[in-house]
Amino acid sequence: MSELTYRRVHHAPPELLFDCMTQPEHLAHFWGPAGTHTPIDNIVVDLRPGGAFRTTMVNDADGSTYTMRAVYVEIRRPELLVWVEADVEGGMRTTITFVDLGDGRTEVVTHQTNVPEAYLSAAARAGFATSLDRFDAYLATIHKGA
Predict the structure, then answer these.
(1) Can you give the three-state secondary structure of the chain, one letter per residue?
(2) What is the mean pLDDT of residues 71-94?
(3) Which of 14, 67, 81, 120 could make an SS bond with 98 (beta carbons 3.0 to 4.6 A apart)?
(4) What percent of the chain has pLDDT over 90?
(5) Domains assigned to the chain
């Protein structure tokens, strides 16, 4: 098992970014890599330690689905989100830190531990990067100055 870290600076305040990552009505607009979509009815957010976070992405090409099941471990709005996916070999842990840069921008650091080999490939990492691109595009539609 290994670790991955993704960093991205967004032109939005941490409160908005935190809300986008924790509210189904936002998540439905960007959750998942390019070539997938996640209907709002496929998203469960029980935002409390021990609460469920579940999404089912739909492949746009063939309709196949992929469900992610996680449990929130730590929640500190607007600076920190931590969840664990017990279904993923080794129990992959995702920590998202929202760092206010003080100029209307926020650095979002996504750190994953116990990452299975399949998620470490260049293709998997590129897919994750498209999720971040989709997040940026969505933010631009809802936040002036994005």
Answers:
(1) CEEEEEEEEECCCHHHHHHHHHCHHHHCCCCCCCCEECCHHHEEECCCCCCEEEEEEEECCCCCEEEEEEEEEEEECCCEEEEEECCCCCCEEEEEEEEECCCCCEEEEEEEEEECHHHHCHHHHHHHHHHHHHHHHHHHHHCCCC
(2) 95
(3) 14
(4) 84
(5) 4-32+74-144 (3.30.530.20)
